TrEMBL record:
InterPro entries: SND3_fun (IPR012098). This is Uncharacterized protein. GO terms for cellular component: endoplasmic reticulum; mitochondrion. The chain crosses the membrane at residues 36-58, 100-119, 125-142.
Length: 204
């Protein structure tokens, strides 16, 4: 399925690229329709995010779950990064995921709007049409809160979606995974090490 999805994405992006080359950006009607399509799709995406936000608050899932987050600096070697075991209410986790999506959408929307208004760039709007729709299709947040599917199997938290959402983090690479015993042991060692260093500083 992943391979077929990649092919489908490549075909759609290729078609959008061809369309961006073919369109006459000096034609006001063409520019108008590109704007309608681009901003219409973004509006749908933002409305979906709003519905998700409301649904998260209505459900109010206070049950906690534990997962591991690995944060590394962009460009760091594999395996290098801060490993942190996090216990968090489901609702809080979902809101964090929603905020990452919203931030990404708004940043891209603002950047492309500025370049379109100031420099008259229309083709990038068409090239970015697929991105908001793709997020609606692949992000578990929408499936769980819009389609009301159970968060099990492929939809089980943590969702590990930061690396698939452009600009969701600035300068860092964040990956998520279910917690394993080794993560807990490692965090305990780090905590003990930090406590020891603090006690040494106090003695000085």
């Amino acid at each position: 399925m992943g391979f077929l999805n990649n092919i489908k994405d490549s075909v759609i992006i290729l078609l959008l690229g061809v369309a961006a080359i073919i369109i006459d950006t000096k034609n006001p009607d063409v520019v108008k329709w590109v704007r309608i399509i681009y901003y219409g799709i973004h509006a749908i995406n933002l409305i979906a995010i709003l519905i998700v936000h409301i649904n998260i608050l209505v459900k109010g899932q206070k049950e906690k779950f534990t997962y591991t987050r690995i944060t590394s600096v962009l460009g760091a070697a594999a395996g290098e990064g801060e490993v942190k075991v996090i216990s968090i209410p489901i609702a809080e986790y979902d809101l964090i995921q929603k905020n990452a999506l919203l931030r990404s959408n708004l940043i891209i929307l603002v950047i492309l709007t500025i370049t379109h208004v100031l420099f008259g760039w229309t083709k990038p709007l068409l090239l970015q049409v697929y991105f908001p729709l793709k997020l609606l299709l692949i992000h578990p947040l929408f499936r769980v809160h819009l389609l009301q599917r159970e968060a099990k199997g492929n939809l089980a938290r943590p969702w590990d979606m930061y690396y698939r959402i452009p600009l969701s983090t600035i300068g860092d690479v964040i990956r998520e995974r279910p917690t394993i015993p080794r993560d807990i042991k490692k965090q305990k060692k780090e905590s003990m090490k930090q406590s020891g260093e603090k006690s040494k500083l106090k003695r000085k």
